[in-house]
Task: structure prediction
Amino acid sequence: MALFTMKLENLEQLFLQELRDLYDAEDQITDALPKMIEAAHHPDLKDALQEHLDVTRTQIQRLDQIFTILGEDASGQTCKGMKGVIKEGDEIISQGGENATVDAGIISAAQRVEHYEMAGYGTVRTYAELLGQQQIASLLQQTLDEEKQADEKLTEIARSVNIEAKAA
Ligand code: FE
Ligand code: FE
Ligand code: ZN
Result:
């Protein structure tokens, strides 16, 4: 039975569903990042995306750890939101064009990914605290901090890339 057909009866259930959604989102990101790295031109952008690919793999391990603590399965949920966000990034990459302008578009797409994740992780971190799952809350906080750092790094790179794009 697909999870979305189950009525939401309590916070534990919603918590688990949202964790599975994030697990699927991270899996999608792992698939999408190599294409973005390849399409990026600016070396700082390539490096930042590569670094975040490594970080994302750690985040998946952290979620695996959480599902083990909970004694639950990680699969069962598709993150449709992340599918759409990644699709928009794919469209920019397919369009191609002037280097800095394409890079600016990749940054724009990558920051949408980070913000979507930040919303999800902030929510489940708070649920974990409410449910008395301190260890899980701190694992989720670590990931939330990493997503914020990735977003800030992209903002920093955008400062020069956007100016180059404007000059093109
Ligand atoms: Fe992530
Ligand atoms: Fe989602
Ligand atoms: Zn991320």
User: Anything to note?
Assistant: The CA atoms of residues 58 and 143 lie 9 Å apart.
